[in-house]
Each structure stands twice: as structure tokens, then as C-alpha cells.
Specification:
heterodimer; A: about 260 residues; alpha+beta; Alpha-Beta Plaits; four-stranded mixed beta sheet; 9 helices; elongated; B: about 375 residues; mainly alpha; Formate dehydrogenase/DMSO reductase fold
Amino acid sequence: MENSRRRFLQIAGVSALGLGATPVLNAFAASGAQGSGYHLDRNENAATAKQWAMVIDTRKLSTPESLRPIINACNTIHNVPTEIQNKNQEIKWIWEAPYHNAFTDEVQKFMDESVEHRPFLLLCNQCENPPCVRACPTQATFKNKEGIVMMDFHRCIGCRFCMAACPFGARSFNFRDPRPFIKKTNTEFPTRMKGVVEKCNFCAERLAVGKKPACVEASGGAIAFGDLYDPNSDVRKLLKENYTIRRKITLGTEPSVYYIV
Amino acid sequence: MLEFAVKGNKWYWGWVIVLLGIIGAGFGIYLMQLQFGLGLTGLSRDVSWGFYIANFTYLVGVAAGGVMVVLPYYLHNYKAYGRITVLGEFLAIAAIIMCLLFIVVDLGQPMRMLNVLLYPSPNSMLFYDAIVLNGYLFLNLVIGWNVLEAERNGVHYQSWLKPLIYISIPWAVSIHTVTAYLYCGLPGRHYWLTAVLAPRFLSSAFAAGPALLILLCLFIRRFTHFDPGREQIQTLAKTVAYAICINVFFFLCEVFVAFYSKIPGHMTHIQYLFSGLHGHGAMVPWMWASMILMIAGIVLTVTPATRRNEASLAIACMVIIMGTWIDKALGMIAGGFVPNPMHEFNEYVPSMPEMGISLAVYAVGALVLTLLYKMAVGVKEEVKA
């Protein structure tokens, strides 16, 4: 009697486990067809590329003041919470850093003073081999068809594996609800919630309607943007005529942001 | 067998109530964290993993350490361990439950946790970690429970368990290997970017896990009518001795590569941890304490006299547990994230809520271990009588 009751409980337990696993197994079966649920509204002006890339002419952006409108343009359009007081937990999409922090592998003992003291714009490098995408356990961060490393804020579980994986410090985590810290909310772009990671998206939402990225527009010609694999694009022309550097190229992530120094 | 867990003296119930109290308080703090966000912790942009993931890493090691009794018994037919294999398996269960809880409390959006299964991403090491940890939990539950039940009924365990037991041995190695792969495959984090990380994790696991098991065995002998056995404890002590030596050896290999090659990226993190850099040295006393504790552990476990004396062996086990915890939990996280890839220094100190939640996770583990060990000891006492 007791034996059969125990047996019953054991079988019931295993069955409950089986029933619980069904949706998981279904998800496995269907995963191939789903892909990422991210959707962008594109219109007929949408610009396309194999790999979007950026060339920043730092000679034209030699003072902190010259960077300010660029950074502000991005922050305003993307609802970046700029009012967070704790600098260790702030959100950064595009920001300013000194040469020796930006190009840690290319610091000369004695170097051109104008370069050494110049402020540099840092942002997500939209790597061709992004380690963050490799690390993400939910495909919440993924590379889109045009080479942009995108974030799905609704899928991110906030494990921050991508932040550990990024060698450029380009990713920020919402340690708290960011909305009270946004100066003025832009209703055209989503605000984020606490507990998810975010970063620069190369203005994928603007490219989809034929506009240039906000920073490019605000730079007064100092930042060029185009398809890295189109030999006639603006960026390729600049790359052909100027000596450029990229951040940490020895890591093999293939950054798509080039700097003319 | 569950009936053993609901019968106990006042000390047993007092301990259970204390643990439940800590769990309740910790859960309250966790609700606050859930409400406010991880801003309640000491984490930052630069140190984006902290105390939770550090303890997770350490406890994966404790779980894997259980295999050090399972392997000799089932593969080498070392009969003496038959008496304590279930203690190793139950310790692994408690440790894995703590690991999973530490992952959950670390998530920014824990309610989306099942996205890991909904959108399986075979390129992410976290995907494999979820598989191996849950698999190891399942294996140990099934094996531990059934073998103990068979022992109670005075019969040989079911033959279908045998393949599961054999699978559980490499599986134990896999859980800590995958955990090391979470770290050591990331470009730009030079302190972790080393092929010896997984072996190093395993060696510290095989020291810390059995060391904890020795302490638990000594406790059980003192306070119950079940004696895990002197020979068993002594053999475990030898395992600890080898493993802690290998762990320190692996660390010295790291030091050699960094400081003989003189490549700055390899040196800076070790310099930060052990001597401080540019005025940042929060980890320095901890890291030296860790080294001293581990070396004391080596001396005490390698010297036959102090290893054979169970009082000094207990001290050795404690210093090894502390030393490896600082080295692998605190040092591994702080050393990996500071300085950040832009060579900026932002140090990390866990916040009070963070430590409260961590304490509660440990209390859950202690509660699970208490209940499981109560059953195991109950069965052993019954069989002996």
C-alpha cells in the first residue's frame, strides 16, 4: 500500500516535470522559424549597406566644445538619461575620452601633442565580429543585415554578459529606471526600462527612413558615414586618401569606426 | 525518506528556523532590488559582475568537487567511499541550487529568464552553462536519492542508475569548465584570457569541495550516530592536498607568463590585485591573505602529522576554503574588470543589500543541505541499527 502510494507520487512528479518541459521543447522545435522579433519601420527612402561604417576626422573636432553638439544630438534623439548623478552607473551611447584611453595599444612614449590632447569620440564600433553578440544567451543583441549590432530591449534579460565581452566599454546597463533622468523625452524613440543593456545603434531607425545618423548630421562634415564595402561610398573615399586608425584591432573584432588623426 | 527531515531535536529545528529567518529577510531585500533595480548593488559600468557572480563561480566549484568521492568509488571501486558518496552528491545539489539562485538574483530582468530556453543561442556560453548546471542538479538528485533509498532497503541500487553515475563524472568536470569558458573566451579581458583558467578553476574546486566535505563529515561524526569514517576523511585530505598544490602552481604559471613576457596587458591586473596601481589597491590585503591562507593550507595538508591530526586538518580545510574563496570569487571578478579595457580604474565594493541577498542565498543552500543530510544520516543510522 505504502509502496504503491510512493510509486504514484514519483510518477506524478515525473509527469509534472514532463508537462512543464513541453513548451520549452516546442520552443526548441520552432526556434529556426522565429529569428529575432525586432522590427523597424522602413520607408522607400531607406538607405542600405552591406556594412555601415563611420570615419571620424578628429582634426576637425579638436576641442571638447566641438564634440558637445554631436553628443547632445544623440542623447536627445535616443532618450539617453543624462541626469544620472552616479557616474559609475551612467548610460553612454557616444562620449568623449582622451587618446590614451581610446587607443590603449597605440600610445607612443613621446607623441604629437595636438593628437595627445585632442578629445576623441567613442561609441559602439559595430564590429564585424562582435564578441557581445557571441556572448548573448538570448539573441537580444544581434547583427542586422546591414552590419549594425542591434539591441532588442524587450528580450534582454540583463545578464550583462555582453558588457563583459565588449572590449570597448560601449555598453551600458540600466541599473535603475532611466525615465526620470531623461531631460526631455523624444516620443519617436523608445525609452528603456531598468535591468536591460543598451548602446549606440548607428541610428538604425533613421537609416530606415533615409536619414543620416544624428551624430553625423550634427558634426558639420567631420564625421562621414557609408557602406564599407561600396568602393564609391563616402567612407571608402576618405579611407583611400587618409591614414586612419581603429581601436584595438589586434583583438580581431573588426571595428567599423575609423579615426583620421 | 522525507520523514527523517521532519523529525529532529530542538537544535535541528532551531537551526532550520534561523535559516528560514535569514532567507525571509534576504527575500525582503531582494524584493527591494527587484523594485529599484541593480542600482542597489555596488556594481557599475566597469565592474558589471560582482559578488553574486563571484559566489556563483565559487559554488560551481564546490558542486564539481563532489565528484572527488564519486569517481574513486564508482570508477576505482574504492569501497571506503561507499559510505560517503551520498554526502558528496547532496553537497553538490545544495551548491548547484545556490549557483542557480545567484544567477537569478544577478539578472536585471529575472522574469525574462526563460528567454534563454525560448531563444536557444548555441554560440553563448551561458546557454551551455544553463544546460550543464541543471543537468548536474538532475543527475545528482536522481542518483543520490535512489542510491540512498536502495541502501535503506538493503538492496543494490537499480541497474539503470549505472550509466547516469558514469555520465555524472565527466559532467562534474563540464560544469566548471563551462563556467571558466564564460570568462576566458572574452577578448579584451586579459586576466581571464588564459587557457589555464578552466584547469585552475577545477583544481581550486577539487580543493575547496572536498575540504568542505571533510568539515561536514567531522560535524556529522560529532553530532550524530553516523561516523563517515577516519579512512574516508584521510583520503579526502590527500585529495585536498594535491588539489591545493596544483591550484597554487597554476597561479604561479600565470605570474611567470605575465612577468617574464613583460606584456603590460598581462601584468596590470596581477599588479592591481597584489600591489595596487595608480593609488587603487582595495584588493591588495585580500589577495595577500588569500595567498597566505592557501600556502598555510598546503603546509597543513602536505605535512603528514598535521594532516593525520583531525583538529589541525579541520583548520587546514577552513583556511583552504577561505583562501580559494578570496582567490576565485573576489579576485577573479575584481582582477578581470579592473582596470577596464580603456585602462580606467573604477574599483568595486559590494553594497549591504548585495551582501544581505547573498547571505540569504547561502542560507537556502544551508537549508537544502541540512534537510538532505538529515535524511542521509537518518538512513545511515537506521541501517546501522
